[in-house]
Amino acid sequence: MTRPGAPSILVVDDDPTVADVVRRYLERAGMTVELAADGDTALAAYAARPPDLVVLDLMLPGVDGLEVCRRMRQSSADLPIIMLTAMGEEIDRIVGLQLGADDYVTKPFSPRELVLRVQSVLRRTVAQPQQPRDLLRDGDLVVDPARRTAALGGMPLSLTVREFDLLAALMSQPGVALKRAQLLDQVWGWTFGDQSTVTVHIRRLREKIEPDPASPARIQTVWGIGYRYEPVAADA
Known about the structure:
The chain is 39% helix and 21% strand. It is of the alpha/beta class. Helix 1 packs across helix 5 (111-123), helix 3 (65-75) runs parallel beside helix 4 and helix 6 (161-171) crosses helix 8.
């Protein structure tokens, strides 16, 4: 169903019952939905008309969900991707987050929960205008929350939706030790959930902004607590 101005969602799942339920719930929430039952069809649909968000099952015939995620992420750094994973697929879920997925929902899941996750991600991108905010600066690292852009050494940073929000949350509270649960709440909008999601995204951020990700200067681990952003610029 096409709705002018509505967020477009690509739902990729080879289970027709699950796909139809997800489609109906998303359409009731005012979104336009396209379905794909396998990885090849999903990639073709994405190439023909990039959606605002992808709901992606990892277990697909042909090209699997992890490879679909990897290829989509290569094409677009800021395309929101929410994975659907089975309860026993923790390793695949972590790999998916490492490949750049923004969020995940574990099967069996509540369709209402999935809609809330989709709306949460879209609020960061297309659903609501951002209020103007001051630039976040730390030496050669500059983040513009209003324009949702980031640059390091004058070069644009390629960040996913969640990576950007996580970096902005950390930089806006320099020197403050933030618990993983706090970051889940601030960035993902979860009051509970798998805190390894934060860990994986922190690892990806370090790979993009730290000269030596194994010995980070900016995003430091506070053992037993979470993470702290330490400015490297004297006047930051």
